[in-house]
Write the structure tokens for this entry.
Amino acid sequence: MIQLYIPLNFLGVIYREIKQSLADMERLFGLLEQNKEVDDSPGAQPLHTTQGARVAFSNVDFSYDPKRQILFDVDFTIPAGTTTAVVGHSGSGKSTMSRLLFRFYDVNSGSITIDGQDLRDVTQESLRQAIGIVPQDTVLFNDTIEYNIAYGKPGASKAEIVTAARAASIHEFIESLPDGYSTMVGERGLKLSGGEKQRVAIARTLLKNPAILIFDEATSALDSRAEQAIQAQLKEIAKNRTTLVIAHRLSTVADAQQILVLDHGKIVERGTHQQLLAAEGMYAQMWERQQAKKDEELVET
Ligand code: ATP
């Protein structure tokens, strides 16, 4: 009986471990599983980013539910190696655009291309290899911080991991921990703050070195020092990459080569920060409102 009990007990422990890792995997891949209808087409080819990954949305219409259209005739190009930021009120469809670029869903009409290749004609594996996402909320595995960074590039050397961590401004923090890079993180280890988690995601992405980057800015309020740090890191990872920033704060988009203003699923304004301020439209209003809020905060503190 005892002989039987021990292995069973042991199996129980392993089962819990596996279940926990599966829960992590599920959370990570849950997004990918959102829509199983999106499949490789029979003749799908690997994506070739020959022109430096120029992204084009052409007259894109999209709805999750046929009764409610979310995007209307969305049309823009991100020239290779440049940054385009999308701003707009909550629910205007910003994150939906990033989901379509990652092909979690297919467009209803129009098309999305990368270097002229329609997303529906390329293999999903090659598409996801070409795109790095720094999400709002990063999933951490119950493993070491080193493993969590290396996840961006399986088999990465320690030197590569440290270089990525330095570029993401998290190396010093990791070194300050008693167990350094071997520190366990995740739900059952050290809990990281939102900003620290985002830095781990940035380090992962730097290791992955994708041609295209989607940066979904955290909605949670950051103090202005943390915000400046994130901006500096964003600049670092966006260098020479085609970047789509889903912005929740206007201060992070001022440097973008192109800003799109989305309102109820339609692009209503586009241009640089200066051009949009001069146009005195919706962007200028949003900017003024945000500046006023900042001034209020400054008075309060
Ligand atoms: P926020 O700034 O608040 O993140 P957003 O501009 O990124 O907002 P989206 O997340 O793109 O907005 O959502 C646009 C609309 O689509 C919202 O009204 C939302 O309710 C709806 N929506 C988002 N995801 C789904 C889904 N999986 N199924 C159905 N509707 C959805």
In short: The chain has a mean pLDDT of 85. The CA atoms of residues 32 and 104 lie 6 Å apart. The pocket of adenosine-5'-triphosphate is lined by residues 64-65, 70, 88, 90-96, 248 (CB under 6 Å). The radius of gyration is 21 Å.
